[in-house]
Amino acid sequence: MDLSLTPLGDSYRLLACSVQGMLWLQTHFEASTWDLICTGKVRLNAASVNGLCSDATAAGLVVSRIPALSAA
User: Fold this and answer.
1) What is the DSSP letter of 35?
2) Who contacts 11 (Cβ-Cβ below 8 Å, separation ≥6)?
3) Pair 12, 44: CB distance under 8 Å
4) Which has fewest Cβ within 10 Å: 8, 9, 12, 21?
């Protein structure tokens, strides 16, 4: 697994789980966000997560996305 996306309320926490995942994130995020990315503090909305997953899997990365629970 290269990237992990875990639901937290109405957003997802992004974690790099491999060197390949971290290197890929470097090409997609501004340098000013690196402290947040490296410490697992980046949270993305669902629309951003969909795009990130598509781009990452197209690049050959393995993405683990835990679906958010829907309110019943």
Assistant:
1) H
2) 43, 44, 45, 46
3) yes
4) 9
